[in-house]
Amino acid sequence: MALQALQSSGVALRKILSHFPEELSLAFAYGSGVYRQAGPSSNQKAAMLDFVFTVDNPVAWHSKNLKKNWNHYSFLKVFGPKIITSVQNNYGAGVYYNPLITCDGRLIKYGVISTSVLIEDLLDWNNLYVAGRLQKPVKIIAMNENVALRSALDKNLRSAVTTAFLMLPESFSEEDLFLEIAGLSYSGDFRMVVGEDKAKVLNIVKPNMAHFRELYGSILQENPQVVYKIQQGRLEIDKSPEGQFTQLMTLPKSLQRQINHIMDPPGKNRDVEETLLKVAHDPDCGEVVRLGLSAIVRPSSMRQSTKGIFTAGIKKSVIYSSLKLHKMWKGWLRKTS
Fold it and tell me: Per-residue pLDDT tens for 216-271?
């Protein structure tokens, strides 16, 4: 599986992991603190380390973590692990973040997500939130032998490739492809307007081309719909209506539903397959797919950010937002200087 290529041997990351309950089906680190980025996030040593912990039993995990790390939680801790898990699963994008935590001398943020919720997001793109994180290079620190999870991780990468193909021309570069893939989970994200550096996607991809190749190389070589010229770093895909229909039919269910909703006029009630066949013949097929992505990401990112006020607490939310705005301001100054 492509993700195994990025398995981390980082002692520092595993040491941080030792401060938390061990019952994890998957733990990974991501972002500018792990992979070098261009722009305002280029200082890796000063960057916050971002983690996601995937757990089979969130109530039991939070119960143990409250005993070990009581001060990591906002006021919600007084309501206990069941309420914390309810907030985690039922609001936002299904992930509970504790930000601005000092651990082993590093500032970290960690999110907790249920294994079943993550698998659904990886397969169907219900929120394209943690699934979106896993479409970019990450450092996998721990992963158990959950076959369903491993299969879903692989399917998420293949779905990212197919979706990007639909938004690209017949011939394009590796960089073009990886920019589209890295941008999938930012489509319609309101934080790209307020709080994030506008060049974020480019800053992620440019210094990490080798990591993207490692993540997607085997998938591209195995894909029958693409000619992958590795030496030239170029790709060619089938843009015929038949080729696009095949790709559209393999998209995650939530994206197919959003495309159907966008294209199905009131009163027509077309089934999804009929709508996708129509989109496959549409010259604006790529833009329709992009609109479908935005319809998933925009509400998901807004709900998760609102939820962060409660899970982080007012004080930490203000500090965290200030750090994001400062980073955006630095990015703007770089462009204008």
Answer: 999 999 999 999 999 999 999 999 999 999 999 999 999 999 999 999 876 677 89
The torsion angles phi and psi of 56, rounded to 5 degrees, stand at -75, -35
**Amino acid at position 197, single letter:** D
pLDDT digits (tens, 9 = 90+) for 110-146: 999 999 999 999 999 999 999 999 999 999 999 999 9
Over residues 75-87, mean pLDDT: 94
Q: Write the CB contacts of 307 (distance below 8 Å, at least 6 apart in sequence).
A: 87, 91, 92
Backbone angles phi, psi at 254, to 5 degrees: -65, -40
CA distance 195 to 327: 8
**pLDDT: is 36 or 149 the higher one?**
149
Question: What stretch of H or E contains 239?
Answer: none
- Rounded Cα distance, 129 and 125, in Å: 8
Q: What span, in angstroms and rounded, lies between the C-alpha atoms of 61 and 75?
A: 18
Angle among Cα 310, 301, 134 to the nearest 5 degrees reads 110
Half-sphere exposure of 253 (CA within 13 A, CB side): 6
CB 127 within 8 Å of CB 111: no
Identify which of 294, 303, 292, 110 has the alpha carbon closest to the alpha carbon of residue 186.
294
Place of tokens 């757990």: 55
Length of the chain: 337
Beta bridge partners of 143: 26
The token pair at 229 is 């010229």
91: which 2 tokens? 């609001």
Other Cβ atoms less than 10 A from the Cβ of 53: the count is 24
Structure tokens at 169: 């021309």
69 burial via Cβ count (<10 Å: 0-12, 13-18, 19+): middle
The pTM is what? 0.86
pLDDT in tens, 278-318: 999 999 999 999 999 999 998 878 777 665 666 655 555 55
DSSP letters for 139-167: EEEEE---HHHHHHHHHHHHHHHHHHHHT
Residue 76, amino acid: L
Q: Look at residue 197 in the predicted model and tell me its pLDDT.
A: 54
